[in-house]
Amino acid sequence: MSSLNLWSILSESKRIINAHSRHFLALSVIFLLPLSFSLIVSPTIFHLITTSSNSPTIHILLRLAHNQPQTQTQTQTTFNLPSPFPLLLLSLFLLLVFSLSALATITHSVFHGFFGRPVKLLSTVTSLSSSFLPLLLTSILSHLILLSLSLPIPLLLDPNLSFSPITLTASAILLLALIFLLFYLRISWTLASVITIIENTYGIQPLRRSASLMSGMRSTGASCFLFFASLEGIMLWSGSLLAAVASDSGSWKDWAFVLQIVLTSAVLTILMLYNAAANTVLYMYCKAVHGELAAEIAEDFAWQYVSLPFDEDKVPYVVSVVSV
Questions:
Q1: pLDDT tens per residue across span 160-210
Q2: Beta strands in 16-103 (DSSP E)
Q3: Exposed (0-12), middle (13-18) or buried (19+): which is 14, by Cβ within 10 Å?
C-alpha cells in the first residue's frame, strides 16, 4: 500500500485528463473558468467599491445631497441605485451552481475515464439532472454539521473574555479538540461528493460511506486535501493582494493587471480540475484497498467474455469475443 500516495493519485489524474484533454478543457471553460475568474476578480471589485465610497469626492457629494431641500431629496430617492444585497445573493447562487456542476461533471467523467470508457460532453452535462440535487443536499448537510461544531470556536477566541488559568487551559484544550475533530471529519468526508454522484445516494449515507472507505487512507486523503487547499489558498491570497495593490495605485486598468488576473484564474482553474479528479481517483483507490474494485472491474468487462462449459473437474477456458 506504500504506492498509494499523493504522487500516484496525481499521476493517475493526469493520465485520465490527458487521455480526454478536449473533454476536460470544455468542462473547465464552461464551469470552472467562470468560477475561478469570479473568485479572483471579486476582491478587486470590492476594493474599488470601498475605495470609491471612502474618497473625498463621494463624501462631498453626500454632504451636498444631505443639505438639499426635503422636496428635492424625496424626488432624488426615486433614482437611487438598487441595493447590492440581491446582486450579492444572485452572485453567490451562481457560484454555488457553477461549483457543484463542475464537481458533478468532472467526477462523472473521471470515473468513466478510469475504466477506459468513452466520455462525451453532452451525456456528461445531461447527467447533472440526476446528480445536482443530491449533491446539493449532501453538501448542505455536511456544511451544516461542520458549521454547528465550529460555533464555539469564536467564543473561545474572544479576547474580551477574561479566564482564569485553569479555564484558559481547558479552553485551549477544547479549542484544539474542536479543530482536530473538524479536520478529522473533513478528511473522513472527502469522498462524500464522489459517492453521491457515482453511487446515487444523498444525505447522511454518503458521509458514512466516505468515512468507511477512508479507513486506512486518511493520511493520503489529508495530504491530498492539504496540497490543493494550500495551493488554491495561495492563488486566492495573491488575487486579494493584487486587488489591494491595484486599487491603491489605480493600475487596475493596466494591461499587465488584466494579464495577471487571467493567469491567476487559469492556474486556479487547473487546480480545481485536478482537485476534483484526484478525489475521484482516491475513491477508486479506496475501493481497491477494501477489495471492491476488482469485482466492479470484472462485472464491468464481463460482457466481453464467454465461458465455455467443460467437465467440472477441468478448468474452464475463457474466450474473448472481439467484434470486427
A1: 666 677 777 888 888 899 999 999 999 999 999 999 999 999 999 999 999
A2: none
A3: middle
Alpha-carbon Rg of the chain, whole angstroms?
Answer: 26
The number of residues in the chain equals 324
Cell of 49: 467599491
How far is Cα 232 from Cα 272, in angstroms, rounded to an integer? 8
| Burial 32-67, CB ≥16 within 10 A → b, else e | bbbbbbebbebbbeebeeeeeeeeeeeeeeeeeeee
* 174-213: burial string, b at 16+ Cβ within 10 Å, e else: eeeebeeebeeeebbbbbbbbbbbbeebbeeebbebbbeb
Distance, in Å, from the CA atom of 36 to the CA atom of 290, rounded to the nearest integer, reads 35
For residues 10 and 274, give the distance between their C-alpha atoms in angstroms, rounded to a whole number: 8
- Encode pLDDT of 64-119 as tens digits: 545 554 444 444 444 444 456 676 788 888 899 999 999 999 999 999 999 888 89
Going by C-alpha positions, the residue among 304, 313, 310, 228 that lies closest to residue 269 is 228
Neighbours of 91 (CB within 10 A): 13
Q: How far apart are CA 202 and CA 134, in angstroms?
A: 5
Transcribe 106-141 into DSSP letters. HHHHHHHHHTT----HHHHHHTHHHHHHHHHHHHHH
